[in-house]
Amino acid sequence: MKTLQERIQEDMKEAMKQKEEARLSTLRMLKAALKNKQIDLMHELSKDDVLKVIKSQVKQLADAAVLYADGGRQEAVTAAQAEIVLLESYLPAQMDDDMLEAKVRQALQEAGMQSKEQMGKAMGVAMKAVMGEADGSRVRSIVEKILAVFSVVMVGVGISQVASASASTPTFSADFVVTCLRIVRAFLLIFGVASINYLLVGGFKYMIASGRNDEVSFSLHKITIGLIGTVTVVCLYIVVTSMLQELTAS
C-alpha cells in the first residue's frame, strides 16, 4: 500500500504530465513544506507528521482566503479554495457531528472525565479516540459541551442531596441549608455568565465564518453549549430560589 508521501509524489508527476499548473504548484508547495518539516524533526516523517503538515497548509490557505475576501480579491479566494480542496483530499474522511459526539462521549465516560478541570486530559482522550477523523477545534467544542453539561448536572445532584438531607434529618440546621443553597446559586450565576459568553462568542464566530464549514461547525457547537448551559442554569436557579424562599419563610 502506498504511503501518503508516495501518493503525493505520484500526483505531482501526473500533474506535470497533464500540465496542470495550479495543481502542480500546490503540490510543490506541499512537498517543500514536508521537506522543511523533515529537516526540523531530523527524521523521516510519520503519517501523523505528514497529516499535521497538510492540515497546517490548509489552515494557512483558509486564513489567506479570508484576507482575500476582505480585500475584494475574489479570484484569489477561488484559487485558495481550490488549493484547500486538493489538500483536503489527502486527509482522512471527517466524521459527521453526531458520530463524533457519540465517540467522544463514550471515550470520556470510559476514561472517567467529568469536569472542566480535566479539559487537558479529556482532549487527549478524545483526540486519540477520533484518530485524526475530526479537526481539533470540532473535538474541543464537543468536549467542552459534554463537560459543561455534566458539571451543571452535578450541581443539580448536589441541590437534590442538600434538599433530601434537610427534609429527612430533623437535626439538620436550616441555616446551614440556606447557606449551601446561596452558595449553589452563586455558582449558578457564574455558570450562567459562562454560558452566555459561549452564546455570544459562538454567534460572533458564526457571523465571521464566511461559509467555511469547519468554522461554521465550531461556532454552532459554541452556540449549542451556550444555549444548553443557559437553559439549564435558569431552570436550576428557579428551583434553588424557590427552595430558599420556602426555607426563609418558614
Task: Describe this protein's structure.
This protein is mostly helical. The chain folds into 2 domains: 4-88, Hypothetical Protein Yqey, Chain: A, domain1; 97-249. It is 82% helix and 0% strand. It contains 9 helices and no strands. The chain has helices at residues 4-18, 21-41, 47-70, 74-88, 97-111, 119-130, 136-168, 174-207, 213-249. The chain is elongated, with a radius of gyration of 25 Å.
**Average pLDDT for all residues:** 79
Shape: elongated
Class from helix and strand fractions: mainly alpha
Number of strands: 0
- Taken together, the total number of domains comes to 2
Low-pLDDT stretches: none
Strand percent estimate: under 5%
**Oligomerization:** single chain
Helix count, per DSSP? 9
Instruction: Tell me the radius of gyration.
Output: 25 Å
Topology pattern, helix = H, strand = E: HHHHHHHHH
User: How helical, in percent, are the residues?
Assistant: over 70%
Distance between the termini: 76 Å
What's the story with the biggest beta sheet?
A: none
Can you describe this structure in just a few lines?
With 250 residues, this protein is mainly α. It has two domains: 4-88, Hypothetical Protein Yqey, Chain: A, domain1 (Orthogonal Bundle), CATH 1.10.1510.10; 97-249.
How would the blueprint of this fold be written?
Layout: H1 4-18, H2 21-41, H3 47-70, H4 74-88, H5 97-111, H6 119-130, H7 136-168, H8 174-207, H9 213-249
Helix pairs in contact: 1-2, 2-3, 2-4, 3-4, 5-6, 5-7, 6-7, 7-8, 7-9, 8-9
